[in-house]
Write a structure and sequence with these properties.
single chain; mainly alpha
């Protein structure tokens, strides 16, 4: 899987535009940090599973936008051979955490919380924007911003179903 394929798949899985996940002026390089996790040998990703996810994504990547969400749901999210890896990609984007698929391959109930991908991935996790919040110990808000009610954007239907 190339970085561009990873970003395209991530956009489909998270509901964020690829330009948001990998902006042209990318000073944080979050997409690169998360992409590197796919080749981290400690993550025990089966090369066959990663290739199947890549092949499946490439087969549906050029589907018209109106049908792409359904194709992602049917071909990836509903496919038990690759859906855990796809879920992990979503979790990386939202939380900046890699869940050890080898420890508990059938559940995220006991995640390996020690495996934060990187400080950049954690700080830039999509969950913070979804919650209208910021990670502990890091904020770009002006003094007193906490006095204002946060705004909550709508979550993508595929991501919402996967994150249940």
């Amino acid at each position: 899987m190339t970085l561009d394929e990873f970003v395209g798949l991530s956009a489909a899985l998270t509901g964020y535009d690829a330009d948001v996940l990998k902006p042209s002026a990318d000073t944080q390089r979050v997409s690169e940090a998360l992409y590197a996790e796919l080749s981290n040998p400690d993550n025990k990703i089966s090369p066959a599973q990663l290739q199947q996810l890549t092949d499946t994504w490439n087969a549906i990547a050029h589907t018209p936008a109106a049908q792409l969400e359904d194709q992602v749901w049917q071909q990836i999210v509903q496919n038990p051979a690759i859906n855990r890896l796809a879920q992990n990609i979503i979790y990386m984007w939202y939380l900046g955490i890699w869940y050890d698929l080898g420890k508990n391959p059938n559940s995220f109930a006991t995640p390996n919380n020690d495996h934060v991908v990187s400080s950049v991935a954690y700080i830039n996790g999509l969950v913070w924007g979804e919650m209208g919040a910021h990670p502990m110990g890091f904020s770009t808000g002006d003094y007193g911003y906490w006095a204002h009610t946060p705004t909550l954007p709508a979550i993508n239907a595929v991501s919402a179903a996967v994150l249940k």
